[in-house]
Amino acid sequence: MRLSNVPSWQYLLRDVLELYYMGSAGGSAKIRTHMAEVRRALGKVFEDDPEIDYGPAKMLPVCEHLDRAISSSTGLRTAKVARSLESVRGLLNWKYGYEKVPRGLTRKYGYTEILGPNGPVVSDRIIVGCVLFAPKTTYPAHSHKGITESYVCIAGNTSENDAGVYAPGSLIFNPPGQMHRITTADREPCLLVYAWTGNPEDLRNQKMSFSKK
Question: What digits encode the pLDDT tens for the residues 194-203?
Answer without folding.
Answer: 999 999 988 8
